Structure formats: C-alpha cells, structure tokens
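Incident review: delayed structure delivery

Summary: a single-chain prediction request sat in the queue longer than the usual turnaround. Root cause was a stuck worker, restarted by the on-call engineer. No data loss occurred. The affected request and its eventual output are reproduced below so the record is complete for anyone auditing the incident later.

Affected input:
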Amino acid sequence: MAAAAAAAVGGQPSPQSEPPQPELGRDKAATAAHLKEALSRPDNRAGAEELQALLERVLSAERPLARAEGGGEEAAAATGGGSGGASGGGPGAAEEEALEWCKCLLAGGGGYEEFCAAVRAYDPAALCGLVWTANFVAYRCRTCGISPCMSLCAECFHQGDHTGHDFNMFRSQAGGACDCGDSNVMRESGFCKRHQIKSSSNIPCVPKDLLMMSEFVLPRFIFCLIQYLREGYNEPVDVPSEKDLHKVLQLLGPQISFLEDLTKMGGAMRSVLTQVLTNQQNYKDLSSGLGENACAKKSHEKYLIALKGSGLAFPEDKLTCGMQDQAAGTSSLAVSGFAGATGTSGQVDSSDEEDQDGSQGVGKRKRVKLSSSVKDQSIMDVLKHKSFLEELLFWTIKYEFPQKMVTFLLNMLPDQDYKIAFTKTFVQHYAFIMKTLKKSHESDTMSNRIVHISVQLFSNEELARQVTEECQLLDIMVTVLLYMMESCLIKSELQDEENSLHVVVNCGEALLKNNTYWPLVSDFINILSHQSVAKKFLEDHGLLVTWMNFVSFFQGMNLNKRELNEHVEFESQTYYAAFAAELEACAQPMWGLLSHCKIRETQEYTRNVVRYCLEALQDWFDAINFVDEPAPNQVTFHLPLHRYYAMFLSKAVKCQELDLDSILPDQEMLMKLMIHPLQIQASLSEIHSNMWVRNGLQIKGQAMTYVQSHFCNSMIDPDIYLLQVCASRLDPDYFISSVFERFKVVDLLTMASQHQNTILDSEHERSMLEGALTFLVILLSLRLHLGMTDDEILRAEMVAQLCMNDRTHSSLLDLIPENPNPKSGIIPGSYSFESVLSAVADFKAPVFEPGGSMQQGMYTPKAEVWDREFDPVMVILRTVYRRDVQSAMDRYTAFLKQSGKFPGNPWPPYKKRTPLHPSYKGLMRLLHCKTLHIVLFTLLYKILMDHQNLSEHVLCMVLYLIELGLENSPEEEPDEEEPVGGQERCHDSWFPGSNLVSNMRHFINYVRVRVPETAPEVKREPPASTSSDSFASTQNSGTAQVFSLVAERRKKFQEIINRNSGEANQVVRPKTSNKWSAPGSTPQLTTAILEIKESILSLLIKLHHKLSGKQNSYYPPWLDDLEILIQPEIPKYCHGDGMTAVERILLKAALQSRLNKRIIEEICKKVTPPVPPKKTSSAEKKTLDKEERRQKARERQQKLLAEFASRQKSFMETAMDVDSPETDIAMEIVTPEQQVSEAVYDCVICGQSGPSSEERPTGLVVLLQASSVLGQCRNSTEPKKLPTTEEEQIYPWDTCAAVHDVRLSLLQRFFKDSSCLQAVSIGWEGGVYVQTCGHTLHIDCHKSYMESLRNDQVLQGFSVEKGEFTCPLCRQFANSVLPCYPGNNVENSLWQCHSNKSMQELIKEVEELQEQLGIFPVSISSETNLSKEMESVMKDIKSTTQRKYTDYSKTPGSPDNDFLFMYSVARTNLELELIHRGGNLCSGGASTAGKRSCLNQLFHVLAMHMRLYSIDSAYNPWKKLTQLMQDINSQLCNEEQPEVPVLYRDVSSLLLIQILTMPQPLHKEHFTCIVKVLFTLLYTQALAALSVKCSEEERLAWKDLGTLKKNTCNAEKSWEVLLSLVINELSKGKLYLEGETEELGMVNPIAWSPDNIERYLQQFCLPFLRITSLLQHHLFGGDLPSCQEEEEFTVLASCLGLLPSFSQTAHPFTSAACLDWSVPAFDIIPQWCFEVTSFSERHAEQVKVLLIQESKWDLPHLLQLPENYNTIFQYYHRKTCSVCTKVPKDPAVCLVCGTFVCLKGLCCKQQSYCECVLHSQNCGAGTGIFLLINASVIIIIRGHRFCLWGSVYLDAHGEEDRDLRRGKPLYICKERYKVLEQQWVSHTFDHINKRWGPHYNGL
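Output delivered after worker restart:
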C-alpha cells in the first residue's frame, strides 16, 4: 500500500524526465518509493539487495556502447547489427532509460525537480567555484588577489566593490574557476555580496533520508561510467584514432552532464559525491573483477591492458619481474631518496620514446639517451588505483582531458575533502599526464585543460604545502620535467665537437617547438611562488642537484656556427623555441626562487644554490673540454647556469648582506666564467656589423630577442653583471686584453697607419672597434646590479624607453622589464610605476588630425629629464633596433636646440653614476691599468693623425672612458711606482704607473711598431739628431716596446694558473696560440720605430684644435679665473659636443693634480707657434674643407626638402580636406568674373586644357554612393541612445524615411498613381549622392586609364570591374565621370537682374517652354559622344542604389518611376548639402559648394533625361497653379482615381520638376517666376495646416477677423485675410467635422497669437526657401548671403527675388509680404481648397493627416553611446541574436539604428550574404557602421569593401584596447565619436580611411 501511495505522490514526474511510456513511468516512481521505504527501515538488507539487483539490471554494462569498429559480438548484438551511434535507438535509448531510472531512484519516487530544489536548500558553500571554459570573460583584480592567478566571474566582480582597484577583464585562454569566497587566494574585502555572509552555521542539517538513495545509487552509476570508459578504449596498435575517442565521449555526454548537474545542487550533494568517489571499499567491491560476472572480468582485463600500454605497471606485476623491492609498494609513490635510486635503472625506455625515434626528420641529429639517469622508478612507472576518483582521473587523462570531465572534476572542488583527495590523485598521476601529453596530437588543447585543473589546485598555498609534505610533490615535478626533457637530448657541438660529453636539448624537436612542456613548467613556477614550498626546495640538496642537472640541458643549446662561404640554404627558426624554453623552463623558476631570498635569514639558501650551480658549471666546462680559448665562429645565447649563478650572487650582495668573496670561486674559474658571456657580447657586435649575414635573418632575430624587454633581465643583464663581477676580481690588464681579443680588433690598435688584420675584414673593423669600446663603457657605467635601488632602476628603464620615442602607457608597461615572477614587487601598474611615470613624463592627450589618422594618448619625457637624466648608455643597452639610439639622440638634439642650451650637434651627454656597492669597487681598476691607457693613447693618436676606420663615435667612447677614469681615480697619487719584482713586462715601457691621472702627463717619445713592409713608416730613417750609441742608451727610457695584447693575456693566464696550482707540472697547455700568427701569404711584418713625442694631455689639446678647426683654440680657463680650481662647478650632467668634452676632461685632470695643471699650461704655451708639421695642417685643412663643404651641402638639401614638404602639404590640404575648400587651388574652373564665353577644363591625365565639346567631352571625377543619411533625420531633438537594457528599444517610426514612406503609401491608396509619383520626392533612403574632388579629365582619357588599371596586376583596394578608380591626381576614390555640359560653367550672359516683363508674360513663356518638350526631345538632336556619356552616367546613377529604392509605382517599370527617381536625385543632393552646412544657410558663402560642387553638371544630365518624358499638358501642374479651371466639378467626377490635390503636393518636388523639364540653360527671370508661383502654393499649404491645428473657437475668431480686413488694400498680402479665406473654403467639406482629433498630437495648449502664427508660417516655408536658394546658387552663381538665424527667412526671400525691395520700414515684416499672386488669391485658393473638400467627402479621416506636413527635421546623428564601455559589453556580449537565437561568436551592433547582428555568422546568412553586409544594405543602402562588441572597434562597410575604423572608447591613458586584450576600463572619447559621425554625414569614409579590403559578403 505504501508503494501505491508513494506512486500517487510521484505520479507527476518532472517534465524534464518525462519517460517514454506512461505506465512504466508510474512503475518507476512506485518502485523508487518502495525501495526508499525499504531502505529506511533499521534492517535494510533486503531493500539493499533488491536495489542492487535493480541497478545491476538497469546499469548493466552488458550492453556496452556501440563502438565505431563494431567489434565484439555483444556490441553488435546490442546495437542491432552494429549500426552504432546514439541515434540508432540502440544504446542511446538504453542510456536514456538508465538515466531516467537513476533520477527516479535519487528522488525516491518524488519529482526530480522538487528533489533538486530540496537539496539546494541545504547548500552551505560559501565559495562561488563557478567553472568556465576557454573564451569566457572573467576578471582579475590585483589589488584583491593574493595569488597572481586569482580570477572572478563577471557576476561576483560586479557584485563586489573594486572601485579604484587595479583590475582588468580578460578572455580566459584555458578556462578557470571563480575564486570568490576563497580567502586562500584573495582578500576578503574583495568578496562579492553573496559570498561575504554565508557561513555554515546558519544552514540546517541535511535530513538523513533526503540523500539516502543517492548514497546507494551513485557508486553503481559511477562504476557504470568507468566500465563504459574501459570498454570504449582500445589499446592502440598504433595510435588510437581521435574519432573513436570522440565517439565514445559523445555517447557518454548525457551521463557526464548528469553528474555535472548533481555537483551544481550545492554542498550537500557534493559531499555525497565526494564520499562515493573516495571510498576505497566501494571501489574494491565493484571493480576488482573477481566476481562471477564475465562482463566485469572482461572490463577489468581491459583496464589492466590499458595500464600496461601506458608504460605503467600494476605494482603486483613489478614484484614478479623482480625489478623493484616491494618495500616501496606500501605507498604508491615511495621515494627512497636519490642516493638509493641512482643505480637501479639501466636504460630507461618507455614505449613512447621508441615510436618517436622512427619519425625523426631528415637532417636531425640522433638523440642521445642517458643511461645512468637519476630517476626513481616509483615516480615514473607505478600507478595503483584505490578509488573511483583515481580511476576516473586515469581515464580522463587517457581520453586526453575531455572538456566535460574536466568541468565535472572541477565543479567538485568547493568540497574541501574532495579538494585534498583530488590534488593527491592528480599528483600521483603527474608522470602519466606528462607521458600522455607528449604523445598527444592536440597538445595545445590538452595543455590548456591540464593547466585549467592544476592552477585551481596549486595556487592554494596551504594545499600545495600539504601535498609537498605528504606526496613528494617537488620530487615528482622535478623528476617528471627531467624525464620529459631527456627524450630529446643531442650531443652538444660547443667547443670540442668530437670529444664533448655534454648533452643539450634539441630545439627542433616538437616538444620544444610546440612548447609542450609548458603546463608542467607553469605548475612548477606556480608552486614555487609559495614561500613554504620554495623553502623546502632550497633546503633539499638532492633536489637542487637534480634541478641544476635539468638546467644544464639548456646550457649551450641552439648553437650558431658562422657561415663563412655561402648563405645557409634553410634558415631554421628554432631560436624561438630556444628563447622560450630558457625563459620559461629556467629563468622563471629562478625568479620564483629569488623572490624568497630577500632577507639575511635566507643566506643559507643562496649558498646552496650558488654551490650546486658552480659544481654544475665546473662539470659543464669539463664536459666540453674547455681551457681558455673559446672555439672561433660559434655562439650560443643560452647560458642559464651562468645566469642562475649571477642572479643569486646579485641577490646575495643586495639583499642578504653576504660577503661576495665568500661565494666566488678561484681565479681560474672566474676566467672560464667570463669567456662565454663575453663571447656573446662580441658576437652581438659581429652580428650588427653584418659579419653573420650568411646565416640569414634569424641570427639578427636572436640578437634582438636577447636584449628585448621580456628577455633582457633574464639574459643580457645577468651576463653583463657576471662580467662586471669577473672584471672586479681578475687582473685588469688580462681582462682588457681579453675584451679586445674577443672583439678581434687587436691588430687595429697600433700606432702605425697601416696594419694587417688576419681575422677581420677591414670594412668590419670600425664597427667592431666601436662595439668593443661601447661594451667597455656599458660594463663600467651600468649599475643595475651594482648598487641601484629598485626605484632607481625603474626610473632609469623608463627614462631610456621614453627618450627613444614617446610611448603609450601599455607599451611602456610592456617595454619595462619586470621580474617575470608576478610576486616580485614591481607589478605592472603598481604604485611605484605610476608615481615614477608621473615624475618623469608628461601626458600628451590623444589628438585628431583632419586626415583621420588617430593618435593615442602618449607619454613624453619632461624637459628636466632631457636636461639631467638622459642616459645614452642605458639607451644603447635597451635598444632592439639600432635606429632607436639615433632616434633618442635626435630627440635630445632637438630638445637642446629648442631650449637654447646648445645649438650645434651635441655628443651623447656624460652622466655621473650612482656610487658603486663596496663589493664591486674592484671594477674601477679596469680604468687604471696600463693596457687600457695604451689603447686609449693609441686611439687618440690615430684619430689625430686621421688613420682610416676611426669615427667620431670611437673618439666619443675614448673620451668617455678617460672621463670615467678621472672620476674614479684612486685617492692618493703615488709619485712613481717601481715595477714590483718579476720580469719587466713590455707595457711597463709605455707607462710608469697604473694611475690614469699620472699617466696622462707621461710623454712617450718613440714607439716600435710592426708594420707591413709596404707601410710608409718603414722608409723613414731613425731620427738624425741622435747618434747610434746615444740611441741605444735612450732606448729603455723613451721607446715603448712593441705591445701585443694577445701575448700579454697569455702571460697573465699562465701566471694565474701557476699561482693556483702549486705544482707547475699540471700546466701542459695545448698550444692554441698558433692560430693568431699571421699566415704566410700576407706581406712580411717588419719593425719600425716611430717618433711620437706626445702624452695623453697633449693629444687632447691638439684634438681640441682639430675639432674646433682653429689653431690654439684651447686656453686653460683657470688662467683667467682661479676660482674654477678652488670651487670647481662640474655639473653632474653635461651637454655639449667633442670640444666641451675635451675641455671638461682637461679641467678634471688639472683639478686632480698640480703637475697636470702645469703641464697643460706648458703645452698650451708651446703650441702657440705653428709647431705642428705642415702635413698635419694641410690634412686638417683638407678635412675641414671637406666638413664645410659637407655642411653646406647638407643645409642646401634641408632647404630643398623643407620647400618640397611645404608644397606637398599645401597640395594635400587642397586635395584631401573636406572642411576647408577656400584654400582650394586644385581645380581650375574659370570664375565668373572673367567674361569668357566657355569654361576651360584641365585634363589630369593628358594635361591638356580646353573646353568640353560634344565630340570630346570632359568630365568631373565623381563618386556616386547610395545614402540613407537623410532618412535618419528625426523630428525631435532628444538624442537616441544605444539600448543597454532589455527595456530600452529603438523604434524607427519617427525617422524622416519612415514618415515619407507612410505619406507616399497613403497618397497611393486614394489617388492616381502617376500623379502620386510627382507629388513627393524619394531618396530619403537609398538616395544617390554625388561628390567630386573637383578634378576633370577627358572621357576618352579616362577610358584608357581604366583599361590600364584593369591590366595592372597589383592588388588594389577597389574593384576596377565595378568601374572604381582613384583620381589620377589626388588619389581620391571615385567610380564614375560626370560629363560637363558644353557652354559656360555659370550662365553669365543670362544674369540679368530684373527684366521689365510682367509676371503674366513670364508665366506664359514658362508654359510655352514646357510645351516645347514634345517638339525637341533632346537638346542635341543627333547621337553624339556627349549624349552617349550622359546616358551611361545616368545608368551608373541608377545602378548605384538598389532596385527597391527606385521602384515605387504600382505598375513596375513605369516611366513615372524614372521621372520620380531623377528629380529626387537632385533633391537628395541639395538636401545633403544643406545638412553639411548645418541644416540652414545662415553661414552663407560658397562653403563646400564652391569649386567642389558638381550639382551644375548633374542638373544638365538629369534635365536631359527628364526632357525625354513629356508631361501631358492636361495634367501639367503649372496650369493648375496659374490658371483657373472652368469645369472643375466635371473633371473630378470623370476619374475613378483623382489626381493628388495641389495642396497635398510637395512644393520642393514641384520646383524641381518645373526646372528640370525646361530647356537648359534656364533664364533667371523664368526661375524667379516659377519660385514666386510656387511660393503662393506653399503659403496656402501653410495656412491650411495651421487651420487644422487651431481649435474650433480660434478658427471662428480668425475667420471673422479676416472677413473684416478683406477689403483693405493689399488684402492679398495679409495672412489674416488669407487664413480666414482658407478656413472658410475648407469648412465647406467635412474637414473640420471630425471633432478635435487628438491623435494628431498637434493640439498645442499654446494659444495661437499673431506672433506664433507668423513664426509657424515662416518655419513652414523655410525648408523650401533654403533648397531654392541653393538651387539658384548652383544654377546662376552668386554668393549666398550670411545672416543671423532670426532673419534667415527675410534674407533668403529677398535673395530669391520674392521681396521686391525690402526696406527696413516702420511696420513689422510679415511673411505674407513675399506673396505675388499670379491669379487673384480669392479666385485660386477656393479652387485649390475645393479639391481637398471633395476628397474629404469620401475619406474624411485621412484629410488632416495629409495636410499637416512635417517640416522641421533635426540633423542626422548616430546613436548616443554610454560613458563606460562595460555597460555595452556586459549587455551585448551574452545577448542572443533575434534571428538565430544563439549567442553570436562575434556580436556587433549598428550605430545608426541599434540593430544587433552576428558578424561573420553563418547562422544568419541569407542568399550568401552574411548579416552585417545585409544590414548595411537595408539600413544604410550599402553603408554600415558597426561596433564590434568583443573588440571595442568600429568597422565600416561601404558597398563591397570594408575597413577597420578604430575605436571610440579609450582607457584612462588615452589608448585604444583592440580586442579588449588588456581589459582595462574604457571610456567614450567624444571627439573621436564626433569625427566618426562627421565622416558618416559628409560621406567621406572612402576618402579618409585608407585601409580598405573586399569583404566578399562574409561579414
């Protein structure tokens, strides 16, 4: 009975789970209720068994999934012949059935929906935990985040308060989960409102019976899922085909979704699931496969096969193999420590290595396998599953992380117990994940999914620490990484190719090329960011050894060998992989570790790292057989071990107060350490000197990447720092000579004028010498790691970047190297960044140029930065492109000129450095060593003597080094130091001591040089003054020995090594030096002795003379002013050129020693007579003349260029500018003042000028485009907003186009069609607008021009087939040519003021002229070229717009259509010009009309065609306007459809019809006559409309008042009289009987005072007057007068001749004064009114609507956008499309009408047109302006082309954020939006935007 009752309750199952057969449904519910009741009894064994049996039946895996192979008989049987697929009704139906059962059972007979709701009520979760997949929009707030990976879903972000925080929106790459509510990852202040409050206390306990059934059902369900997974996987013979796996997953979709829904029921259900997933007993019972059930056995076997196939073994099998003692078996991951494990494994080969070996590409080197790898078998090869969770994860990995499974596993994470269990399981499978990843074909997708999971687990410090302690997380990670890289090692070819024992990774391998290692490395970096984990790592010596071992695989990878003969045939791009690998796998973990070594207490860690790093380096040197000479022509940019060592040294000194010497190795090791980094510096110089050009572009790429902002602080900075450390500890002479030797410029450093360089071509010498000196300058002046604070570093970096170029905020953030580890303090956008930025830079707001190129907001250095902080050294270090150095110098020069600090060409300024940290004081010894002094002396001498291959740059660097030496001289100056013991070295014969200050004054008399025999020095005799014996005696005192740097370096090296190794016998060095001796082929070297007699001081003074070009230019300043010496004011920062530098140096030398001062004075006295040999002076003169000549030539060139630029500019202004045609000189149409009979045109193609003739017509270059801008005018000034909520919608019925449409269709309902089509204008939508650039060409020239374009193969941005081209002169876009009518451009001859003909005569003439139409259909009777062209251009005009915009008649293709279309084209162009003038003519002047207008020519073309259609004289409106009809009544009754009453006709249209049907050229008097007649009609219309708007009483009042005045004089010109007449006449019909029709909405509460009425009448007539005035201006010339808005009416009326002589009289002006009745008003008005009243007899309700015409339109505007972009984004990016009801991938919104469209969406495609293109045709007649929601940019569609316009939303720093990559808040930029609107209204998109491309209807 209970069961039945339960069945009744559950009889209505939820709609979602509606089972197929109703009786079974009841049955299910009943069974479920029965079972639930049975199970809740205390003794529930029976119930449990019953349930088991049922589940066994329902969820049995007897019906396995149909597999693609159809293999296995059961499969075939179950699916009915193996049809397969869920649709076959086979397994699909069964699956569904099973799911229904599960739902029913869980709900225990109740409805499943109610059950869900009940469980949700018990959700205690305070975490959001929302899981998302790739492409989801999430937020990250750095202010609230504790972990750098913190992220929030949009909902939680907007619910929380993040104002003023540093946050950004981002599109998830790999997927993620919301951290709101998790205080481990983010600060609680950032939680949203929902997750702040919930704590578990106030949630009631879950009733036991609610979830009881779940506990029974779910284990079976999950096991069933696992069985399916086992079943579906076939251990591949080769590789499992992707398809099979996908198929299985597809079938399992519903099951996994079901589990996912369960997780969403909240905490209560999650804990049940956790219980099920982690319970080991359940798993054992169900899955061991020991039961009788054959199916279960089979399933278990498959599982074991899968395990084996993965290279993993079940521990029991291991026992039998005896490979590992089972002691380790207790924990599935026992790690016995590295010591024990080393010996165990022999060659470890897992199956996956072999199969890859076979597929080795050609030309790859064979891989190396390490046999004795340090590896723990248990980590790599053992897996044992003890719970469902573990096996589920195993299959998830096997199936390569299907998205649904990942989401399910992540959805469970808010459950704490699950989180821990899952993390441990994940770690246990880590090695397996790596193996699967390596094999995967979709490694990218898989990587994303792995990281999606791991980032949730490892970002939590507490959890990471726990797993590290309990599961050896660090050991596993390091081992797995090591193992992964071992699969792609090759032998290193660095140094000693044959005997090298070193192995490195092969960068061409897929593993590195595709960044496959990325997920593992990223996890490693993530856990190292936790202090507790990093501490464990740094304390564990075994781990450090392994890690250094791992890093050494990258040491020396991607070796480059210089090609010496021919260019490489294939440029390998492996360097990308190499740089990425070093940065990600080596540098980032290093930064992670460094961030935990910040305080004294962590000294021990640093010592550990440094120790193992040095050991690894020593091993490396041994492995590559390195002694002291690097192999020539080889370079690798990858020395991660060196960099680890350097960075930890730097940290030790900077933060931990360690003594540097205590962690430095011996001298010999230091010598080895410095070689490779130095080799890189020299190679950089070689690469920039084009010595590696045969290696292709990629080597340049490497040199750039090495210094590029993301890499520099992990690559070049540590290298330079390491060299600085070595230099500070090694013998300076040794170091300096090494530098010049590495840079290969040793042979150049000789006093002789000629030399031989055996290893360097002469064209490379100069740049290599510059390179060597620049390197020394950087080495000695850079303080990045030698004592600068972080803020100083940041400031220096920022100044360097800003000096190169102005930068946007985001590019600055990008260019400034920050420690790659986000926890390291300088976080981009952090406080210090902003404060430093505001200190050094000024913000330049974004500006707009009329040319349309849009600037971003830029930062530019402040003046004081240029003045005091510009540091060329830093700039050189940080430039990727050499041109940036030049750019910085140019900007610096410009600043000095501008501020008047220095007029000439300045040298890079000398900047005083921050003091050195005491540990590095030794670095300055480099400046005080004899070797450097000899080099400096030699170079100064060579520069003075003009030897070849020296440059100003060399001199600059030499002086810089001297100045540095003077700044950093040792305190006391010893008088003369004895060479201390030992053999005398040759450089002692040059200088006595090593102090620069004293060596500067030391005179060197003679020098021995080795020169080629051909050199001039050889011929000279020894000086005659000394006899040979005295010569011998002076030799020691005066002649310096031949100085060989190389020999010096060798000696030093021997010494150091001997000192190190007590027993000398060790030093048996290979004699490598022979390669430096000159090969025999070169001419022999001989020794010559040169007479020098100079000291450094004297050379400097002579250089000063040379630089200034004057003798004796240097005069010691202290002779005049002793103050200088007492209180020297040497600024910290000096501007100036070479002369200033020399002066500064001499002053510093004098300050430091009295001797120097004296010697300088003596030299200056001595030099006074012209002592220097003539030769020098003539040479000097020569160079000076040369310089002067060069200077003059340069100035001339500048002048020419400037002139050219200004010309170009003026041309561009005239050709491009839309706004200022006053300056236009481009078009040479003759102005009306010159009385010329014919207009003369210049053809821009053939250059001839002449009139346009009928045989050879000339044409204007025009662009025809369809436009709906007019149709967008609205009659309210209230702006339309873009809808951003569901409530706001835009209804298009108030637009001009809609109103006109309605009016036309109304007329067509009641009146004759042909008459209707002349009563209105069309073209409000899809009207054709014609514009020109003003240039003319012969039409035949144009045709040949088009022909040549057609044959041109170059890709153009336009389609020649469609007749598009660019104007040959100004390159403006065009698509047609408008023929110029022969005859004068402006009809001067007919410009008579007023003839004395009476109005009546004129009316008669007009009528006769119109009658002529029938007689002369075309003005030019024969077919001429001109008429042909006119026809063709008319065709063009017609085809410009779509058919639907030209066909309005009821009978398609009727001639009335064409007639209407043609005069409407004229109307469209006039109306648009009016809009461009701002909607009125107050501004007057020629404005845009002037020379740019083509209306005159257009009129001729239209008129010629209109005259082909004659108007039947009976219907000619002119007669109705100017004659009284006799038989009015009879005429109206004849026709079933009457003509449109005159009062309903649009007067402007009538005007155009009249003018265009008259023979051209028209006489001015006829024009005025037509206008006068039409004005009377217009005025009557205004009165009629007014009468309808008045109330009944007012009408009566006006009627009486008018009758009183009727008999006064001038009654016809008084509006009161006329109004009363109109009211009188109209009230004869049923017009006013309707009562006050409210719906007209015109019943104004205001009373119609006479003033109001006058204002109304003027407003009603103004649009007509404006159009008419424009027309008159174009037809007859003459300027438009300008006026105030109030007087526009009167001014235009008098301009048109409506006001005969308007004089400012006493009585006020009324509009009626303009009337000039051709027929007495009292006769004609009743006639017009009669038509209306007779119509009102039949259709009273429409009469009024048609009488009131809307005359006041506002200017067209785009939709108003909200201030903040987020408003738009949040509403639209998830909005569904109204057509396809999906959320579009690329949503866009139309800025004209607000329609929401799918960009590129195939879903909304119609007849091969995508939705945006379609909409652009419907909404803008081919022009569409769309805002792309996901990119914040605007895209313009114009016809068949499109372009990206840019963005109108900018961030706080004035920058666009295309594609929302940075995700910062964006705000509307009103100026930009105005520019966009302006381009839309003026139809100039085509001219201003340059980058157009075809869209092939695909947008």
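Verification: DSSP finds 74 helices and 31 strands in the chain.
Action items: add queue-age alerting; document worker restart procedure.
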